[in-house]
Amino acid sequence: MKPTDICITEETAALLRLYAARYETADFINGDPSWFMHQVEPSADRIVLAFLASSLSYGSRKQFFPKIQYMLDSSQGRVEEWVRSGAYAADIPDDPSRCYYRLYTCRTMHRFLAAFRDMIQEYGSLTSFVRQSATDARCLSAVEAITSWFAARGIEGVIPKNTQSSCKRVCMFMRWMVRDGSPVDLGLWSDIIDRRTLIMPMDTHVVQQSMRLGLMSSSSASMSSALRLTSAMSQVFPDDPLKGDFALFGYGVNNK
């Protein structure tokens, strides 16, 4: 993880700890994209639905929540089988003239799901793919493996083509999968990826709150910046830096 030259004051650290403890609760799930993965029971369905939900999580929640719900409803809760069997093709056809969500046409989503299906069929599961394809137990290795798989199949937009950008949605998905002992995150991959290597999911909101707190000196939303912010959070939460994700959420809520 890239070091940071930011030195967090004890006052700021105490504030971050306060907000992390206050907001990492079961109530956080309501209105958050993580809500969807808690609506199914089998781990395989949770992982697949979490990946799909994270991939669509940008823009207005009022707009993308119904698109995630559509996939949940179409699969009747058996999301992993819906992808693995190719049943998604009847619900999201290969049609470039129909919009699915914002810049994603039905063709875009159809081809994304087809590439995801190929992964599941070849490796058995997304979990097995990460276990076999990540070069080590670092989050960045898993993110690189995921972005490379979809880029090699011409999928752009839904999944970033590489890790030059902050890969916010993939990093959010990794938080859901890796952090255990949380009322929000699932922790199903806690034995694959070291949670100390998780990367802050960086979007405009995170950048704004981080700069207000003096945790970042640049507004760049690159992977390099995300790693530096994570390094700064490690000063406060050395064993679990992504507690800082909840802390920044809480800070934003209380300082609108």
Write a short abstract of this structure.
This protein is an all-alpha fold. It has helices at residues 10-23, 43-55, 61-74, 79-84, 88-91, 106-123, 126-133, 139-151, 168-178, 204-212, 223-236, 243-254, and strands spanning 99-101, 104-105.
Topology, pairings included?
Elements lengths: L9 H14 L19 H13 L5 H14 L4 H6 L3 H4 L7 E3 L2 E2 H18 L2 H8 L5 H13 L16 H11 L25 H9 L10 H14 L6 H12 L2
Antiparallel strand pairs: 1-2
Based on the model shown, name its key terms.
256 residues, mainly alpha, two-stranded antiparallel sheet, 12 helices
Description of the structure:
The structure is a single chain. By secondary structure, this protein is mainly α. 53% of the residues lie in helices and 2% in strands. The chain is built from twelve helices and two strands. A two-stranded antiparallel sheet has the order 1-2. The longest helix is centred in the middle third of the chain and has 18 residues, at 106-123. It is globular, with a radius of gyration of 18 Å. It starts with 9 loop residues before the first helix and ends with a helix.
